[in-house]
Design a protein that fits this description.
Order of helices and strands: HHHHHH
Number of domains: 1
Mean pLDDT: 85
CATH architecture: Orthogonal Bundle
Low-confidence stretches: none
Number of strands: 0
Length: about 180
């Protein structure tokens, strides 16, 4: 009897873990759809919107389940696409950024991962720039609204990628501190 109750307990734990992962996927996806699709700012700086959507992807990368970032980009991008918050190029850019973050395996790392998060944010946003570069080269449209050349544009993308990762790192550190305080009480 104890063997079957132990097996049932393991099934419940797996089901709870899966439910938490699905809830996280839904939350990250909804946040990405809003930040990547609905938040529009009048700034004319290339890459500035990463301050809103990239922390969501970096935090999804810090989640314990591999594939959470790609799932977030697909689901959140599809949601944003459905209400015309982004286009196919925007979805491709989100997937490029998510792939770069997923490659870092942030959720599998224990301890201090600030530098990994910063590098992931930097490379993710530069990956988004590469997708944009390929599309603008193929179509022949300007790289950005400010008509900046490639080097200053890349520098701005790098700076906004690092800033977004710092926001994600600060949010994660605050969450872990609050969670630790609750556990100690």
């Amino acid at each position: 009897m104890s063997e079957s109750s132990a097996a049932l307990s393991g099934v419940r734990a797996d089901a709870q873990s899966l439910a938490c992962d699905l809830a996280a996927l839904l939350g990250f996806s909804a946040a990405l759809a809003v930040t990547a699709g609905l938040v529009k700012t009048p700034m004319q700086l290339p890459g500035h919107s990463a301050i809103f959507w990239l922390p969501v992807l970096v935090l999804a990368g810090a989640h314990r389940r591999p594939g959470m970032v790609i799932g977030t980009a697909v689901c959140g991008g599809a949601m944003a696409l459905s209400f015309r918050g982004t286009d196919a190029l925007g979805l491709a850019s989100l997937l490029a950024a998510a792939s770069a973050i997923e490659a870092f395996g942030l959720g599998q790392t224990k301890g201090a991962r600030g530098l990994q998060m910063i590098l992931a944010g930097l490379l993710a946003h530069l990956g988004k720039l590469v997708v944009k570069l390929v599309s603008t080269t193929a179509v022949g449209v300007p790289l950005n609204e400010a008509l900046l050349p490639l080097l200053p544009t890349a520098a701005l993308y790098a700076a906004f990628g690092v800033a977004a990762a710092l926001i994600a790192w600060g949010g994660l550190a605050g969450y872990e501190r609050i969670r630790g305080a609750r556990g100690a009480a």
